[in-house]
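Hey, I was hoping to borrow your eyes for a little while. I've dropped the whole record in just underneath, so have a look:

——
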Amino acid sequence: QVQLVESGGGLVQASGSLRLSCAASGFTLPDYAIGWFRQAPGKEREGVSCISSVDGTTTYADSVKGRFTISRDNAKNTVYLQMNSLKSEDTAVYYCTTKGAWGQGTQVTVSS
């Protein structure tokens, strides 16, 4: 059974940083790609970043490119999203997903 648990969200001032974690269980992390999505109030869920299974290739939405970094620690079966230079428009609930499963989300609030 695939389970994903996000953590690391919180309240931060604009230009600050946060690191989100996605702890995975029920499968071996390198075997599957994992993505981060976010959903702001009144908006549709949007893709933020993804890390591939085979070679760890990363992709980013244009809105976060150069500010966010996705990585994974296979030994800990955890994927991270390092978020720097945060902006108010980054405020959202952030979710990780793989194999059709979603975590419960973690709230990120950026104050201007």
The chain has a mean pLDDT of 95. The chain has no helices and eleven strands. The radius of gyration is 13 Å. The first strand starts at residue 3 and ends at 7.
